[in-house]
Give the backbone structure.
Amino acid sequence: MEETYSKPPGIRVMERAKKSNLSFKTYQGIVLIVTFLAYTSYHATRKTTSIVKSALDPQSPDVGLKFPWQRRNTTYDQNQSSKLSWMLKDGWVPFNGVDGTAMLGELDVSFLFVYAMGMYFSGHVGDRMDLRIFLTVGMVGTGVFTALFGVGYWANVHIFYYYLIVQMMAGLFQSTGWPSVVAVVGNWFGKKKRGLIMGIWNAHTSIGNITGSLVASLLLKYGWGWSMVVPGTLIAVVGVVVFLFLPVNPESVGANKDEDEVFSPRKVGDEVTEPFLRSDREEESAVGFIEAWKIPGVAPFAFCLFFAKLVAYTFLYWLPFYISHTGMLNCSLLYQYFIAPY
C-alpha cells in the first residue's frame, strides 16, 4: 500500500491563495530555504554552550576530565580567585569550583554521546514517519531543553545533575536534525546538481555556528541564562515554520516529478545518472544498518567525517573557553609581576 502524506498547512494556504499548484522549482526553493533555516538553528543552539562556559567557570585551573566519584571536596582557592576578580565575575556554582572545567567536559561528553546514539535511532524513525512532524518535534524539543539549561540561571539551580540531564536530552533531540534535512533535500534534488546544491546548502553549519556565537555573546552581559533561552526559543519558532511550510517530498504536495531530472534517469556517456534517493514508490522498506554500510562510499565517508568532526567539535566547544582562560591568565601574570609591585 502506498504511503501518503498530508500537505503542510502553509503549503495549502499558498495553494488556495494562488488557486493553483506551485511549480516544482518553487517547491525546491521552499525546501532549500526551510531546511537551511532549520539546520542553521540547530547549530546556533549547539554553539551557545561554548560561549556560556566562560561565564560558568571563568577561573578554574583544573582541566582534567573526572568522574563524579573522583572529584575533590576542596573549595577553590580564594586567593587565586581574588586575583582575577577585577576582570571576571565569580562564575556559577558548581562550575566555578576546583573541578569546574571537568564538569563542563562531562556535559560535553554526555551531550555528544547521546547525540551520536540518537543519530542511529533517529535515522530509523525518520524513515518510518512523516519527516515534517519528526523534524518539528526534534526542533521544539531542542528548544525546550536548551532553554531549560538557561532557566537554571533565574531558578538559581546549582545542582550539576540538573544541567547534565538537560544537556543529554538536548543532545537526543538534536540528533533528529541531520538525518531529517538530508532526507528531505534528497527527495527533491537529483545527481545532476547535487554537488552545487549541497555545497551552497551546507553553509548552514558555519552560519549557524556564527549566529549562535554572536547571539550568545551579545546576551551574555545580561546574564548567561539569556544566552541559552533566546536561541532555544528561536529554534522552536523555526520548528513551527518547518511544520507549516516544509514539503517532505513531491508526493506530499502533488508536485509534477517530470519537471526535474531527478526522477528521469538518462544515460550520459557510459554512465547512467540515477536518482539521488529513490522515491517512496520504489522503496517499500527502509534501509537497515548493515545494508547502509554495504552501500559504496558509506564507510570511507563515515571515517573521513569522524576525523573531521573530531577537530571541528574540539574547536566548537573549547576554543572560546580556552582563549578566555589563557588570555585572562596572561593578563593576571602581567599584572602580578609588572604592575602590582609598583
